[in-house]
Amino acid sequence: MPDLDILLSPYQLNALTVPNRVVMAPMTRSFSPGGIPTADVAAYYRRRASHGVGLIITEGTGVGRAGALDDPNVPRFHREAALAGWKNVVDEVHAAGGRIAPQLWHVGNKPSNGAGERVALSAHRYESPSGLSLTGERVAQPMSESAVADTIDAFARAAADA
Fold first, then answer.
1. CATH number at residue 97
2. Which SUPFAM superfamilies does the annotation name (predicted)?
């Protein structure tokens, strides 16, 4: 049987100390109505921390950019109500002894609806630097230099809020 002591031992990186090396990878759940994490979301993450997950990486959280998300139930990481919801999540995870960090997200150039079906270009706000797929087909809105700069700024604002 392998020695699991290292997995269960604390780990420190600069100012971050986690109680063990068990890490939960991000898994999008779409359980945040209107993009705002609820008490149910806080309870979900708290249960993971209380059962031994040392570091939780949240599901994808949309940055403050119009084309960042394609689902109204995926949590946002901008605006007062969403950030207040995340504060509750963080407080619950910390109370259970865990640590948590957001996965900051922008869906970018997303030409399908998840079921493999193409979504009409006029029916969405997806964006990418070129708007083109790998094969050269236009599947998203091309971004201007100012839109790229705004997207970078949206990630920076979300990181600062984290």
1. 3.20.20.70
2. FMN-linked oxidoreductases
Confidence of residue 139 (pLDDT cuts 50, 70, 90): confident
In a domain, 56, yes or no: yes
Q: Are the beta carbons of 11 and 21 closer than 8 angstroms?
A: yes
Q: Report pLDDT for 135.
A: 86
Structural domain including 115 reads: 18-161
Classify residue 9: in a domain, yes or no: no
User: Which residues have a Cβ under 8 Å from the Cβ of 85 and sit 6 or more positions away?
Assistant: 32, 36, 37, 38, 41, 42, 75
Q: Which two tokens stand for residue 16?
A: 């971050």
Q: Look at residue 109 in the predicted model and tell me its pLDDT.
A: 75
DSSP state of 137: -
Q: How many domains does the chain have?
A: 1
The answer to the question of residue 36 being in a domain is yes
Domain contains 121: yes
Is residue 68 within 8 Å of 62, Cβ to Cβ? yes
pLDDT tens, residue by residue, 110-127: 655 555 565 555 556 788
